[in-house]
Amino acid sequence: MAIKHHWGEYHPHLITLYTSLAYSYLKKGGDQIFAAQKLYEAALKAASASLGDNHIKTAAVKMDYGRLCLKKGSKQEALTYFVNAHSIYNDFLGKSALDTGHAAFQIAKLYEEQREFKLALEYASSACEIYQQYYAEAHEMRIFALWHKVCVLYTLRSEGVKVDSTVLYQVLLKRDQLIEEE
Fold it and tell me: For the stretch 99-120, what's the b/e string if a residue is b when 16 or more beta carbons lie within 10 angstroms of its beta carbon?
């Protein structure tokens, strides 16, 4: 590849190239997942080598690779990548950054599936707080995060389920009102 020859095997521009190509392969579907996986692995290798394991760009590649793992059905591997990315985002961007919230939401969903409800609640609560800061009241990401939090609270038989169920209901009413106005 000419780019590797001029820039070197681990140049940061290769990270963007690899992840963009991998994303396009995933969009095609079918048997392209293997090609996408190889590209994401190359992006991870380049990011770690050129930027370090704890760089924000490396965290973004880890999130992408985690989503690929979900598509492959490798939920435990996906969880590992999401937790690692969450830690990096939390350390560098802060606990209220949107990227931190996206990682927290992915983690919450996986912990809920694993029946690790206290951990799921921790991450779902974090995602809800973050999404409330960034998204409009009736945005689908707020609704999804609230829904997962309510489900976990209900499973834990927590008193907080009443409060968060009411908030979710109000958000859904607001969404329905906005849809009717269109």
Answer: bbbbbbbbbbbbbbeeebbeeb
